[in-house]
Design brief:
Elements: E1 2-10, H1 16-35, H2 38-52, E2 71-77, E3 82-88, H3 94-104, E4 109-111, H4 112-121, H5 132-144, E5 164-169, E6 175-181, E7 202-205, E8 208-214, H6 216-222, H7 224-231, H8 237-247, E9 253-259, E10 264-268, E11 272-278, E12 283-286
Parallel strand pairs: 3-4
Antiparallel strand pairs: 1-5, 1-11, 2-3, 2-6, 5-6, 7-8, 8-9, 9-10, 11-12
Helix pairs in contact: 1-2, 2-3
The protein binds glycine.
Glycine binds at residues 163, 181, 183-184, 193-195, 201, 213-214, 216.
Length: 287
């Protein structure tokens, strides 16, 4: 029984207030893991990150070049169930919407207007995604940089907000991985991140669960989470995580893993990746 979570990879930044939220989320998620299951635990943990406004997901989401918010999320289980949403706005908890896609539809990914219509049909209320603090930051970035040139996207990875994700295994051996993101500052509207794509930024099979963070285009092109999932058949979580960041050293990213034996794994090739894990014995934060 183990829960591991990350709140983004990128350049070094001041972490203290974010560590408090991270620890609270891990403790809360672990309570749910013990009382319920891995699915409820991952959803609870990611929702805390989405709600707090400190990370690039949900309330803290970054803005597109048009000043809008377009969020992505994906959830996947070791039973082969999966749901994801892309380019959604006006939703408080994208991870919850991804779960509804998984549980209530015959589809895997819903995007844009269709995903939002589905959210309303499920009773999810409108929530203003464009937060004033993010708009202020957007104008600061615009005054300093030409965001139209998307190839400069790596320059924005130093923003101290990250994609969030969690992976858990419960006492029945159910494994679940989930990821949620606002994407990357100044992205073009309609851009789909790795986080929303099963096998790219989020993946789960019977050997383990994986959530990636970092430069989504690179993670997406290499299907890094799927690659890691295949390796988990023969290697433990930490070995796989380390191998992946070495193999894909041209991509700025990090990943967390839980394997079928309840081992945690994490690695990153960015300056830092804030995250942590919790089991019956330990609560460990890494950065
Ligand atoms: N990895 C998150 C993103 O690129 O949007």
């Amino acid at each position: 029984v183990l829960l591991i979570a990350h709140v983004g990879a990128g350049r070094k930044y001041e972490t203290s207030s974010r560590i408090d939220v991270l620890k609270d989320a891990l403790k809360e998620g672990f309570k749910v893991l013990q009382k319920k299951d891995a699915l409820a635990s991952v959803i609870t943990t990611v929702k805390i990150f989405e709600e707090c406004g400190l990370f690039n997901a949900g309330t803290g989401s970054v803005l597109t070049i048009s000043g809008t918010v377009e969020m992505d999320a994906c959830i996947m289980t070791s039973e082969g169930k999966c749901g994801a949403v892309s380019c959604v706005t006006g939703i408080k908890y994208p991870i919850e919407l991804a779960r509804l896609v998984m549980e209530k539809t015959d589809h895997v990914i819903l995007c844009s207007a269709g995903a939002m219509e589905f959210a309303r049909s499920c009773g999810l209320k409108y929530f203003p995604s464009v937060q004033p603090e993010r708009v202020k930051k957007f104008h600061e970035l615009l005054s300093k940089n030409d965001l139209k040139y998307y190839k400069k996207v790596k320059d924005f990875l130093d923003d101290p907000y990250g994609t969030v994700g969690a992976c858990a295994i419960d006492r029945n051996g159910l494994i679940v991985a989930g990821t949620s993101t606002g994407g990357i500052w100044g992205k073009l509207p309609g851009r789909v991140s790795d986080s929303a794509i099963p096998g790219a930024g989020t993946y789960c099979n019977s050997y383990g669960g994986i959530s990636c963070t970092g430069h989504g285009e690179g993670v997406l092109k290499h299907c890094i989470a799927y690659f890691a999932g295949e390796l988990l058949e023969k290697m433990d979580a930490q070995k796989v995580a380390t191998h992946c960041v070495e193999k894909f050293c041209d991509v700025s990213f990090g990943l967390i893993i839980v394997d079928k034996n309840g081992n945690p794994g994490y690695a990153y090739n960015t300056e830092m990746m804030l995250g942590g894990y919790i089991n019956e014995k330990d609560l460990l934060v890494f950065e």
